[in-house]
UniProtKB/TrEMBL annotation:
InterPro entries noted in UniProt: F-box-like_dom_sf (IPR036047), F-box_AtFBL13-like (IPR053781), F-box_dom (IPR001810), FBD (IPR006566), FBL13/AtMIF1-like (IPR050232), LRR_FXL15/At3g58940/PEG3-like (IPR055411)
Source organism (scientific name): Cardamine amara subsp. amara
PANTHER family with a match to the protein in the record: EMB|CAB62440.1-RELATED, F-BOX/RNI SUPERFAMILY PROTEIN-RELATED
Domain FBD per the UniProt entry, residue ranges: 367-438
Gene3D superfamilies: 1.20.1280.50
CDD domains: F-box_AtFBL13-like (cd22160)
Short name of one Pfam family: F-box
Full protein name: F-box/FBD/LRR-repeat protein
Length: 443
């Protein structure tokens, strides 16, 4: 007779809240990896969690609601309620982005002022409300611990007479308004260790500055974007840029509406992006001779002689946008001044219809073609005679070429594209370079 089986003993499972037994330091570290709104929501979990979030060193408040949603509330209300309880002794980051839902009858910067009462390292403040630009607290301009500062949109930069930002290394001034012409000068002069500066000036913002002067001996990186060109409907006032940054390594200028750009010599400049429609001064052009990477936008017949008069002895990669039709021969002059060039990319921005230009064969071959050039690209090829002969010249003389890319002009029909591709493929290549096309899947 088989033995009767004993019933299996049922063990009662006990749910243990192990995470709540962790130390405050570990819980804070966990909450730093979730959005601030979710971190604050943990206060409802239990008494153990009630005040953990209040010790977070990084807080982010960003407008995410759509104004068309009538039930939505601005993030301002969440900011105003939670900051009352926050008590961390140090703030590594305070990120505030208030949008058009933000009420216009509140003190939007009061919590910034409170945060500045303790050590604050990084402040990002963007204001997009429907009211007028507002001032930041004066204590912002004397914060000893601030290392990164971003001010964006409806903010007035009103710099007091006493200003000192001894730790500030990165500064972004994005479409802000300056109280007076020299406000930005006083601000920049108070930043002795500033390394990175980004300035954006928009056409829809009258920022009260005609000459933007950047004199920062410590600056390594400068980005300047300007689309301002008028003060009112009847009076056009063009703005100017002055740069005095001897240690600068990286420069990015976009300025189609400025009057001039005056600079002091920048011997350390290694990476330059220049997209302007006015002629830079001699010191600026001399500084380009030291660059290793160079992007030139809006290059026309008036600018080519200036850029071609420079010897780019260290240049490795060059991008250039052509805005006039008769510049292919000038490109050979440019190449002759770039003995170490490895990558050369050309983009055509001009109309190509009804132009047939002659090509005069250069008497010598640039050194970079015979010993360095590895990548060549032509964006906007339409099959004009001078374009065709320039590309033929590149392929026949570039001994180190590894890849040549031709991006065909979109105005060409399929039959024209096929004909152009076959013509280009038949050209003699001195190297075993790969010839690529972007329009048709042709091997």
């Amino acid at each position: 007779m088989a033995e009767a089986k004993c019933p299996r003993k049922i063990q009662k499972r006990v749910c243990e809240d192990r995470i709540s037994s962790l130390s405050n330091d570990l819980l804070i570290h966990i909450l730093l990896h979730v959005p601030t709104k979710d971190a604050v929501a943990t206060t409802l979990l239990s008494k153990r969690w009630r005040f953990v979030w209040t010790m977070l060193s990084r807080l982010t408040y960003r407008e995410t609601k759509n104004k068309s949603d009538l039930q939505s509330k601005s993030v301002w209300w969440f900011l105003d309620e939670t900051m009352r309880f926050h008590k961390a002794p140090l703030l590594e980051l305070l990120h505030i982005q208030l949008g058009k839902l933000c009420p216009i009858d509140v003190d939007v910067v009061k919590w910034v002022a409170k945060a500045l009462d303790r050590p604050l390292c990084w402040l990002f403040f963007e204001l997009l409300w429907n009211s007028e630009p507002t001032k930041m607290p004066n204590s912002l301009y004397t914060c000893k611990t601030l290392s990164i500062l971003t001010l964006s949109r409806k903010i007035i930069v009103d710099v007091p007479s006493s200003v000192s930002l001894p730790s500030l290394t990165e500064l972004d001034l994005l479409s802000v308004v300056y109280k007076e012409e020299d406000s930005h000068v006083r601000l920049l002069s108070s930043c002795p260790v500033l390394k990175c500066l980004k300035v954006v000036r928009r056409n829809d913002v009258d920022d009260n500055v005609k000459t933007f002067s950047i004199k920062v001996p410590s600056l390594l990186s400068l980005t300047y974007k300007n689309t301002i060109f008028k003060r009112d409907e009847d009076d056009y006032t063009y703005v100017s840029l002055v740069i005095d940054t001897p240690a600068l390594v990286y420069l990015d200028i976009f300025d189609y509406t400025g009057k001039s750009c005056s600079t002091e010599y920048m011997p350390c400049l290694a990476d330059a992006t220049v997209d302007v429609d006015f002629n830079p001064d001699g010191n600026f052009l001399s500084s380009l001779s030291r660059t290793e990477f160079m992007y030139l936008g809006y290059v026309d017949n008036t600018m080519v002689p200036l850029y071609n008069a420079i010897n780019y002895s260290r240049l490795i990669e060059s991008h250039i946008e052509l805005n006039d039709i008769d510049l292919c021969e000038s490109l050979v002059v440019l190449l002759s001044n770039c003995p170490k060039l490895k990558n050369f990319l050309v983009k055509c921005q001009y109309e190509t219809d009804h132009f047939t230009l002659l090509w005069n064969q250069p008497s010598s071959v640039p050194k970079c073609l015979s010993s360095h050039l590895e990548i060549f690209e032509w964006d906007g090829y339409a099959g004009r005679e001078d374009e065709k002969e320039f590309i033929r010249y590149i392929l026949e003389n570039s001994k180190c070429l590894k890849r040549a890319g031709i991006l065909l002009n979109l105005t060409c029909n399929a039959e024209e594209k096929q004909k152009i591709i076959e013509e280009l493929k038949s050209m003699h290549r001195v190297s075993t370079s790969e010839l690529l096309f972007s329009a048709l899947n042709v091997d």
